[in-house]
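TASK: fixed-backbone design
INPUT:
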């Protein structure tokens, strides 16, 4: 009781310092019937107006001429229990509909309305009525937490079309344990430093998705700003090829480097349920532009050379690889078994497309060798041998007519007789000089044995 009397006395001092002598009709505050009123210089009570007390604080005289307390003034100002205009502070105000709202009042005393306001280094948004907003706001472009603070960076939230402020109390970034992404109704979003949710721009090359590089890593978002995982068509070049796609792991990060994964559901023609892919630093899978594989498609990775087909898989086995624009501008490459799938070099026995094996020689750059090497003749990597019961055959390779036996050995500086009894006379380099002393040797020359390559 003593404390209450002290407070009342203090209020009286603050309001009445220099108060009126009513008989002199001096302007000022006065206490009347337990309420504070204000008289002008004519002795008239002031209504619906602001007046300062001796403490320099603004107070409001209501329609009855009494000082208002704990109430709104003109719907834009608020006076506290001492009648003082609230300025530069938060106020938690119970509403008539039973809801509680937070408001912030500027230095002028007006509540902040329909704008962003930075308070104590944090951003808040207030609606057209001045109430602090929470949840998804401004066409679902921004998100403010239950504390009203604008969120930035990664946030795991219930999407706007499923969000209800009273039902869905989302704690951004919480750990969902073993719950699959999205099963709990929450998805990842990314908000810039300005609080704006990232969504693909209208000119993004993807049809439904867009990518953004965040802290050096690419991520994918749909048109609602939801982080995507798995295979996504992010380029939409119209050809429906693997190069339109990127793969995003369960953490949302674009895969870089080698990765073994099921191919995209929308693409056909893969051999197995799981295939190897290689993703470059921008997340784009390595792949040929068409089924015409050429040497420009060869890719060096960690000291090994690979060739990716148009499906994005590294090829294996014996392959036809074009070296130029012409249809005959090709040679054989051998990429080993499926587990190797990289360029092989040197001499080896290779399984051809028909399932038989043949001897080959591949240069240091992987190309099938054409010409004479170690006393044997090769064409596009394949060893040339006398076949079909012939003892000796003359093949035209790289402009020269060479005679070889059944094991592929080059006949040098000698005369041999083939199975038809034709005598082949060769030079010291193994080139046919005469056949049965006939100077016209073209009829005795055979086109070389071509590699039987696998083709995609």
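OUTPUT:
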């Amino acid at each position: 009781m003593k404390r209450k009397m002290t407070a009342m006395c203090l209020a009286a001092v603050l309001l009445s310092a220099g108060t009126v002598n009513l008989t002199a009709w001096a302007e000022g505050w006065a206490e009347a019937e337990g309420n504070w009123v204000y008289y002008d210089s004519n002795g008239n009570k002031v209504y619906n107006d602001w007046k300062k007390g001796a403490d320099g604080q603004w107070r409001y005289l209501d329609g009855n001429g009494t000082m208002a307390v704990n109430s709104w003034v003109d719907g834009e100002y608020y006076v506290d229990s001492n009648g003082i205009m609230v300025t530069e502070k938060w106020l938690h105000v119970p509403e008539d509909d039973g809801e509680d709202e937070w408001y912030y009042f500027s230095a002028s005393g007006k509540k902040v309305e329909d704008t962003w306001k930075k308070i104590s280094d944090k951003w808040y948004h207030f609606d057209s009525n001045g109430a602090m907003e929470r949840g998804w706001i401004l066409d679902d472009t921004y998100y403010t937490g239950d504390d009203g603070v604008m969120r930035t960076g990664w946030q795991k939230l219930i999407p706007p079309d499923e969000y209800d402020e009273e039902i869905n109390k989302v704690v951004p970034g919480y750990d969902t344990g073993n719950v699959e992404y999205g099963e709990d109704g929450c998805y990842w979003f990314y908000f810039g430093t300005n609080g704006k949710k990232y969504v693909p721009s209208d000119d993004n090359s993807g049809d439904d998705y867009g990518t953004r590089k965040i802290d050096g890593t690419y991520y994918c978002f749909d048109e609602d700003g939801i982080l995507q995982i798995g295979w996504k068509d992010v380029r939409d070049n119209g050809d429906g090829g693997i190069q339109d796609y990127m793969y995003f792991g369960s953490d949302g990060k674009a895969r870089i480097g080698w990765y073994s994964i099921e191919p995209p559901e929308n693409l056909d023609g893969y051999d197995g349920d799981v295939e190897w892919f290689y993703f470059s630093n921008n997340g784009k899978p390595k792949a040929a532009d068409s089924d015409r594989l050429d040497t420009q498609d060869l890719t060096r990775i960690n000291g090994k050379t690979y060739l990716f087909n148009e499906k994005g898989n590294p090829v294996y086995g014996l392959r036809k690889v074009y070296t130029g624009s012409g249809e005959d501008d090709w040679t054989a490459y051998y990429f080993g078994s499926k587990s190797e799938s990289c360029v092989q070099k040197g001499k080896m026995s290779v399984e051809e497309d028909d399932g038989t094996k043949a001897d080959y020689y591949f240069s240091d750059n992987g190309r099938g060798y054409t010409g004479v090497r170690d006393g044997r003749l090769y064409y596009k990597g394949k060893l040339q041998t006398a076949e079909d019961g012939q003892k000796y055959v003359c093949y035209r390779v790289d402009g020269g007519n060479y005679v070889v036996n059944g094991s592929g050995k080059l006949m040098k500086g000698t005369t041999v007789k083939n199975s038809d009894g034709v005598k082949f006379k060769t030079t010291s380099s193994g080139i046919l000089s005469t056949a049965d002393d006939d100077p016209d040797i073209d009829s005795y020359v055979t086109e070389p044995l071509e590699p039987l390559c696998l083709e995609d």
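COMMENT: Residues 1-10, 17-24, 166-177 have pLDDT under 50 and may be disordered.
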